[in-house]
Design goal:
The structure is a homotetramer. By secondary structure, chain A is α+β, with helices and mostly antiparallel strands. Helix content of chain A is about 25%, strand content about 35%. The first copy, chain A, has three helices and seven strands; from the N terminus they run E-H-H-E-E-E-E-E-E-H. In chain A, the strands form two sheets. In chain A, strands 1-4-5-6-3 form a five-stranded antiparallel beta sheet. Chain A has a two-stranded antiparallel sheet with strand order 2-7. The radius of gyration of chain A is 16 Å and the shape is globular. The termini of chain A are close together. Strand 3 of chain C pairs antiparallel with strand 3 of chain D, so a sheet runs across the interface.
Chain lengths: ~150, ~150, ~150, ~150
């Protein structure tokens, strides 16, 4: 199961070589995680972070930038869950254009108390929503366009 | 041998949790690589990129964010060479405050023709400058404060 | 006549006070101008900038930040033409949430040769497309949702 | 009396035309205001914002971008006080290279309670520090390099 959306490469993403300046990919993928919380998990990212004061900092990432992306291209950003720990969420992220993989990324987030920064167990409803998202892949009749 | 400098954590680096938003670290480390070219290697980063049209895109990175950094802190950014390939430069990068490691990063850059994006061999003078920088570590009498 | 779209306020737009860091508004409005070129004028922003090498730098702006915007809010960004000069385009831009005006901005862009940075007359097809966009407002039967 | 410092134009500031992307100027000037609080006023910007929870949002600005700045240039950023209100601080800001003015900006900040966003009177010690900074200009024997 994965979650994905289109992303337009904008002028503000690009560097003097006319290609995406790589830190901007992390900003885009951060937006994808927000959209996953909003639309894929139905949790409301801002509600989790602002009202419930749950932080989701990144603690580790591994990234390959295989091909550059250029201004005006419409790429696809894709997210799949790799592992769900007690307080960590490991994601496999990709930026593609058609069959061409541009960027491949593994990113580990942890749930924290936003104000102290201390790790906390993933809240029950967040865990349940992620498990439901995962289970969808095993449902034989599923016809979600985004299935692998 | 390593190259390092101080970095003030600014308001613009920080997120709603009051800590550095992680893509900003990559912007800071990009600045450190520029300063290494300018001050550590004596090459002039802007001259290499703008006049000579040599690109230095990042093709891979691995990163651990061990502890957060907060607005107003003065951290140290540190760069050491790990490997010099035909067209790739592998760097070990760190952000520390005192003995505390905040971020540890391995980043692989490649030299490219800026306009086509194609990899090129590391230009001779760039390679020579990096080798000189490395050799400094073997000089027995060296007393550079920045030696490991 | 105006052009508008919704904008989600994301984590990456916000500062340690939990509100949009003001330079991020200019990045958002830059995206709105791109979308206006793509969808309002039918010109293809990236085509104009990248293939035709026409730059659109900002030469002046006046801005009032009336109320803050917070993470998770869906605001509306709105663009209207104020003046079309020989090589300048003056835009009135707004960020609103419902009836509440958050930001009001006047921004002057000029068309330039991207590589030299020198001002050039607005290309004929760009001028024609902007004039068509403007004339739409006088059509009595127009029922565009975005009319004032 | 003004406060100023050098700023290197970095790769990360520049757009596909190889010049500073204008929102980056506001990030740079924000850094200048921080340095003014730290070094010009002796107040500690992070202390004011983080410990004392005083916000300094921008409520208005007027800006002329007269000439572009390019990667690798060392420009000077300069700040002068224009007006001190009950809760507002109006600054005249400039980016120059030698005698060449690149950007001229008037920016109005207000002091707020960081958590509520409501305007508050400028705290007494902040007002006193700004007044001392201003008075320096009238001292006949002053020989600060940065005097007008």
């Amino acid at each position: 199961m994965h979650f994905e959306r289109e992303q337009l490469i904008r002028f503000s993403h690009c560097d003097p070589a006319g290609i995406v300046f790589f830190p901007q990919y992390f900003v885009m993928f951060n937006g994808l995680v927000e959209d996953w919380f909003d639309d894929g998990l139905g949790l409301g990212y801002a509600n989790v972070v602002v009202q419930r004061r749950v932080g989701l900092p990144t603690v580790a990432l591994k990234c390959d930038f295989q091909l550059p992306s250029r201004m005006g291209e419409r790429v696809r950003l894709r997210l799949a869950l790799q592992r769900l720990g007690r307080s960590s969420i490991t994601l496999a992220l990709e930026c593609r254009r058609g069959d061409e993989v541009r960027v491949r990324l593994q990113q580990v987030l942890v749930t924290t108390a936003l104000d102290s920064g201390r790790p906390i167990a993933i809240p029950d409803d967040v865990r349940a929503a992620i498990e439901r998202f995962e289970l969808a892949v095993d449902a034989p009749a599923a016809s979600v366009g985004e299935r692998r």
